[in-house]
Amino acid sequence: MSKNKHLPEDREASANGTTHPESKKTQQAAEKATTYAASVTAPETVVVDKPPPKPNYPLYRVQPGERISLGDIDPNASENYRKKKEVMAELEKHRQRIRKLQERLYAENQRSLLIVLQAMDTGGKDGTIKHVFREINPQGCQVWSFKVPSDEEASHDFLWRYHHRVPQRGMITIFNRAHYEDVLVVRVHDLVKEDVWRQRYHIINEFEQMLTLSNITVLKFFLHISKDEQKRRLESRLENPDKQWKFSKNDIKERRLWDEYQQAFEDAISNCSTAYAPWYVVPANKKWYRNLVVARTIADTLEAINPQYPNGEKGLKNIVIPD
User: Fold this and answer.
1) What pLDDT does residue 5 have?
2) Cβ–Cβ contacts within 10 Å for residue 49, how many?
3) Rounded to 10 degrees, what is the CA torsion of 208, 210, 213, 214?
4) Average pLDDT per run of 10 along the chain, which is 323 residues long?
5) Separation between Cα atoms, residue 185 and residue 90, nearest integer Å
6) Which ranges of 157-286 does DSSP label H, i.e. alpha helix?
7) For the chain, what is the total number of helices (H) and then of strands (E)?
């Protein structure tokens, strides 16, 4: 019986600075699942025979608690790769790996993968989706792009519209922009007070851990381009009539806020890269290298997840298909 008859045992344990056995079991179960997720999201430790992998994607993974400065990360980096033609065969190999592993993930129907893509305007989110997922079966993959929230979405908590779109079992889902918009755009444009967007880092971490505990592996890629490269890409859109539809005068207004966005991205990535849902800051001035890094990271992660085809029904060996 509780020493304090006015407190149940679990509250008494908390008041005494101890952990109730049932609460401890719950915590241990969550920690076990989180530890497994962390091994999957460092896939080179599981599937690479002779590290480091090529390309060396772990270089771009932000460690939990690490404070990054985008100014210290070269968006032109490409390791020892020099030309697009050098990576095409390797990129195709990883595309085929993604295709085969996605088929197994879909058939198994137990786990899923959420991929988050964020970048400055012209950063290459659409191009990454196009080139990395070219071979994948559309039946097992969904892409969601998040624009300005509707009145209904804005009337709920900020994660409501994103939670609706997380992947079902067996699926790969790609967020083209994501819940991080609510610590980026709202901050840069002063749409909410600092104490509101700042507490969202913690909420996002809790949300992503909840997804992890629901067998959803979370990978996040920031496609890192330079301000000069953005200028070149915007000019290219203006000069090409077939691409002018992608240009908006608002792009110029947003470009003037480059430094503010860089700071916002640095803070979001630094606060929200966890062992179970890591951020990768991928050099993205060279599109072909960006595609290779993202493809290899995803392929290795899927291999670490190791989905399996389910067993067929019993007695199939005796089945004879009638004429």
Assistant:
1) 54
2) 5
3) -100
4) 52 59 76 80 94 97 97 97 96 98 98 98 97 95 94 95 97 97 97 97 97 96 98 96 93 97 98 97 98 98 97 87 92
5) 36
6) 160-163, 185-188, 194-213, 227-239, 249-255, 258-272
7) 13, 5
Integer angstrom CA distances of residue 130 from 18, 95, 147, 217, 219: 52, 11, 20, 21, 18
Tokens coding 115: 């991929």
> What angle do helix axes 287-305 and 125-132 make, rounded to 10 degrees?
60
Both tokens of 42, joined, read: 């460092």
Q: How far apart are CA 232 and CA 146, in angstroms?
A: 25
Evaluate whether 197 touches 262 at the Cβ level (below 8 Å).
no
Query: Residues 98, 128: contact at Cβ < 8 Å?
Result: no
CB 184 within 8 A of CB 268: yes
Burial class (CB within 10 angstroms; exposed 0-12, middle 13-18, buried 19+) of 275? middle
- Alpha-carbon distance of 230 to 300, in angstroms, equals 30
My answer on whether omega of the bond before 55 falls inside 30° of 0, hence cis, is yes
Beta bridge partners, 114, equal 173, 218
**DSSP 8-state class, residue 276:** S
d(C-alpha 15, C-alpha 232), whole Å: 61
The residue to which tokens 């085809």 are assigned: 309
- Of 220, 239, 226, the C-alpha closest to 123 is 226
Q: Name the nearest CA neighbour of 77 among 221, 220, 226.
A: 226
Taking the CA atoms of 184, 211, 283 and 223 in sequence, report the sign of the dihedral they define: negative
Distance CA 91, CA 40 (A): 21
Strand extents, DSSP E, 12-149: 112-119, 141-145
DSSP assignment letter at 110: S
Are the C-beta atoms of residues 60 and 284 closer than 8 Å to each other?
Answer: no
Determine the 3-state secondary structure of 172 from DSSP: strand
- Greatest alpha-carbon span in the chain: 79
